[in-house]
Amino acid sequence: MFTMYKTGVETRQNILRCAKKLFYENGFRDTSVFSICREAEVQPGTFTYHFPKKNDLLHSIYTDYMQSCIAFLDSCGLDLHPAEHHLYVLALYYSHLYCDKKLVSFHREVMEIASMNVWFDNPRRLISGFSGEGKEINDNERFDLFVKADNAARRELNLDFINEGDYSLPGIMKLLKDIYTINAKLFDVDYSLMEQYLEDAYGFALKNMGARLRLL
What we know:
Blueprint: H1 8-26, H2 33-40, H3 44-50, H4 56-75, H5 82-97, H6 101-111, H7 123-131, H8 140-164, H9 169-187, H10 191-207
Helix pairs in contact: 1-2, 4-5, 5-9, 5-10, 8-9, 9-10
């Protein structure tokens, strides 16, 4: 039943591939570690070596998805400001995440796990990107509080968005605008510049709705 893979990297990727398949079919809660092991043809000990807990799969899944969005954008060869690049990536990220009801259901389950943080912003980089040179928060404790507040707001806005059920591209871009309005207030960044980048990101996402980008 169980087969050996040549390298740990291959084994890890096989587990992730099988987990994504089962999460898509059955959801996160209704997919057990045992069922993933059976699908991947690995022993439970091999699974826990690569992913000590089932939740640890989520970080890899969302990171892989974000990286695929970045790779697609970079392949387009656009000359973008770093902050603009970031919002183009997120426009791709959300427009393809919310285009499939099963993905939406899975994402809701993840959002409801209070300990999960699947956001990949680097807030200090964003501050510099949207505000120009020299903008920085030197009080690390205050900065950490702002990041926690930002994460909590994103979770609530995503859950509210899912509950409202408007998964059109204009609805998705409103979600992004709401998220970054809060971001601008928390980190005191240039909102007018952010708003312009969001408008440009909307056009890019609309043009590339057919891109093959998948969370699961």
